[in-house]
Amino acid sequence: MSEEKTYEKKDKYISEVKKPKASEMELKEHLVYVGRVAKVVKGGRRFSFSAIVVVGDGNGTVGHGLGKASEVTNAISKGTDDAKKNLVKVSILGNTIPHEVIAKHSATRVLLRPAAPGTGVIAGGAMRAVLESVGVKDVLCKVLGSSNPHNVVKATIKALQMLRNVNTIAEHRGITPSKVLKG
């Protein structure tokens, strides 16, 4: 799988981030939210639709997109195309996440906690779509603050991007993964 390379500056490290390509993987889409807006014109009301779509391969890759159109189906297809352009790779550990994380976007804060096998995805609608798309099967979640679907999706993806596995931490510290686990 060939991936496009981009560089991202975090803290004092400049890390190489490999961007996944949508054309090379099989993505499943989840419709998170469809909104209807009415514009009042001379002859009555003119309706327009917006759709938030989340796509993922179920194996650590996820993306979100927003599409707007005068028809629902067109809005969904535009949202899907936008989501395929915004794919990110996240670190998952088996069927759960490696550690607890809290992320914030606008007025929304989300809390994600790893769970024991068999727990399932304990999360609300917008957050559930993101977690199922990325392939997490056991996780405990809570939305704190605003429950606006736009912000919940963005905060959840930000939280998933903050996750780091043992190998990544060991690489940044310049030690072996076994030394990271010892403390």
Written overview of the protein:
- With 183 residues, the chain is of the alpha+beta class.
- The chain folds into two domains: 4-88, Double Stranded RNA Binding Domain (2-Layer Sandwich); 90-182, Ribosomal Protein S5, domain 2, CATH 3.30.230.
- It is 28% helix and 40% strand.
- It is built from five helices and ten strands, in the order E-E-E-E-E-H-E-E-E-E-H-E-H-H-H.
- The protein has helices at residues 72-85, 125-134, 149-162, 166-173, 177-182, and strands spanning 4-10, 13-19, 28-41, 44-56, 61-69, 88-89, 101-105, 108-114, 121-122, 139-145.
- The strands form three sheets. Strands 3-4-5-6 form a four-stranded antiparallel β-sheet. It has a four-stranded mixed β-sheet with strand order 7-8-10-9.
- A hairpin with a 2-residue loop joins strand 3 (28-41) and strand 4.
- The longest helix has 14 residues, at 72-85.
List the helices and strands and how they pair.
Elements: E1 4-10, E2 13-19, E3 28-41, E4 44-56, E5 61-69, H1 72-85, E6 88-89, E7 101-105, E8 108-114, E9 121-122, H2 125-134, E10 139-145, H3 149-162, H4 166-173, H5 177-182
Parallel strand pairs: 9-10
Antiparallel strand pairs: 1-2, 3-4, 4-5, 5-6, 7-8, 8-10
